[in-house]
């Protein structure tokens, strides 16, 4: 597939292969034809070490990376300036950008949900399995940023545990542990012999991750190059039985924070990758074949999209806060509504239980504040019930849905 990249090849050692024998487990679960297809030798990938890789970047590639880096820094500064104008909203605004990144990363894996369903899942309302799965990705992103000071094997395991611990259908005993079996991508129900890509044998995972961590800890590489190559190598290693894509994109956020490229929040890079998922996956394939140029270009491209769309998202959310403040004018300054307002940025759907747990309000005080905000047109009660009521900020949800729609429109262009 052509990616439109004019840069010459940026060489990196390609994967090699080693031979193993495969015999389907529980053959009675598959057709005889499938058992025959999946019985015999197969080739598993062997990742080349990257800890000592010395890239030779063409001038055009360097300019591309420098431009994307500058835009990410400008986005981060813009977010900091916007948030500084309203310091109580700093935490919530950062949280919603992180949640946006988690939702886009999940969508790459065909896990889609709306802003409303995601917010409902965060307060244990609603029953959408995809929304609950995305909440796990939010927790993985949170772990990635909280552990960014030390990108290590331990922090990678912690990200995976946060992601998968409560995922429906996933054994919780495997969360935060490297896989102990062969995995593959593509065709092959009973075995890897017809797969598109067979990841390294599980015995090679710890050593490959140690090499990856050594690469991340280097201080002599352009950060976006380091992020792109580390991410591609992680996806090639495929160290977990499930959740590798989402953990790998959480790792990218951790490296960006670790290197100090961004400081205020998560960067919605996955939204940029989501604009053309086929190009992203093709770039990972090119990396395995020995060409790092494509994944570096895709990461730079995604960073520019993230900077532009992320800045607009920050502006639109700040405008919603200003509009809501105007509607609350006249309410005394110590009223609970003013404490609730900034929290709506990160949690635009609320119930009294959430406010009791997160803001320490009494239940009656929380209910009175929610009713007062409804009366002022800030919130809308969405259940129509007298008990178990839930309120939403329709303006903030609209901004988040429009952001998602914008990314979809860009992908269709």
Characterise the protein shown here.
The chain is mostly helical. It has a single domain, classed as Fic-like fold (Orthogonal Bundle), CATH 1.10.3290.10. Helix content is 57%, strand content 6%. The protein is built from 16 helices and seven strands. Strands 5-7-6 form a three-stranded antiparallel sheet.
What proportion of the residues form beta strands (DSSP E)?
Answer: 5-15%
- Identify the overall geometry: globular
Main CATH class: Mainly Alpha
N-to-C order of helices and strands: EHEHHHHHEEHHHHHHHEHHEEH
What class do helices, strands and sheet pairing give?
mainly alpha
CATH H level, superfamily name: Fido-like domain
Helicity level, as a percent range? 55-70%
| CATH architecture descriptor text | Orthogonal Bundle
Q: Give the tally of structural domains.
A: 1
The main pleated sheet reads as:
3 strands, antiparallel
CATH T-level topology:
Fic-like fold
User: How are the strands ordered across the major sheet?
Assistant: 5-7-6
Q: Which whole number gives the mean pLDDT? A: 92
Give start-end ranges of low-pLDDT stretches. Answer: 1-7
Radius of gyration: 23 Å
Report the count of strand segments.
7
Jot down its keywords:
mainly alpha, disordered N terminus, globular, 57% helix, three-stranded antiparallel β-sheet, 413 residues, Fic-like fold
């Amino acid at each position: 597939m052509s990616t439109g990249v004019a840069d010459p090849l940026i060489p990196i050692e390609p994967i090699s292969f080693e031979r193993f024998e495969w015999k389907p487990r529980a053959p009675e679960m598959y057709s005889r034809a499938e058992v025959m297809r999946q019985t015999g030798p197969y080739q598993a990938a062997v990742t080349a070490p990257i800890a000592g890789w010395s890239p030779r970047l063409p001038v055009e590639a360097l300019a591309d990376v420098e431009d994307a880096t500058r835009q990410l820094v400008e986005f981060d500064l813009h977010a900091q300036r916007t948030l500084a104008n309203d310091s109580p909203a700093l935490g919530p605004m950062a949280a919603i950008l992180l949640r946006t990144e988690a939702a886009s990363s999940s969508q790459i894996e065909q896990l889609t949900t709306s802003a409303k369903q995601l917010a409902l899942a965060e307060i244990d309302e609603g029953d959408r399995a995809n929304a609950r799965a995305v909440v796990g990705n939010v927790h993985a992103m949170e772990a990635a940023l909280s552990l960014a000071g030390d990108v290590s094997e331990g922090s990678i395991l912690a990200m995976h545990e946060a992601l998968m611990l409560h995922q429906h259908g996933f054994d919780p005993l495997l969360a935060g542990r490297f896989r102990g079996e062969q995995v593959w991508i593509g065709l092959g129900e009973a075995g890897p012999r017809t797969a598109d890509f067979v990841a390294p044998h599980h015995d090679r995972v710890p050593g490959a991750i140690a090499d990856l961590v050594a690469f991340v800890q280097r201080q002599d590489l352009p950060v976006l190059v380091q992020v792109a190559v580390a991410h591609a190598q992680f996806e090639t290693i495929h160290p977990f039985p499930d959740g590798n894509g989402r953990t790998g994109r959480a790792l990218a956020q951790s490296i960006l924070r670790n290197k100090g490229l961004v400081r205020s929040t998560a960067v919605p890079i996955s939204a940029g990758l989501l604009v053309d998922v086929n190009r992203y996956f093709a770039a990972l394939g090119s990396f395995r074949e020995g060409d790092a140029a494509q994944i570096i270009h895709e990461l730079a491209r995604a960073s520019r999209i993230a900077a532009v769309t992320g800045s607009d998202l920050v502006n639109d959310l700040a405008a919603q806060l200003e509009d809501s403040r105007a509607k609350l004018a006249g309410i005394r300054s110590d009223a609970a509504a003013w404490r609730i307002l900034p929290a709506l940025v990160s949690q635009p759907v609320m119930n009294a239980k959430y406010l009791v747990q997160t803001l320490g309000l009494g239940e009656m005080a929380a209910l009175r504040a929610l009713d007062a905000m409804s009366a002022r047109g800030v919130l809308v009660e969405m259940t129509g019930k007298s008990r178990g009521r839930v309120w939403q900020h329709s303006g903030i949800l609209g901004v988040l849905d429009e952001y998602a729609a914008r990314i979809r429109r860009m992908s269709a262009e």
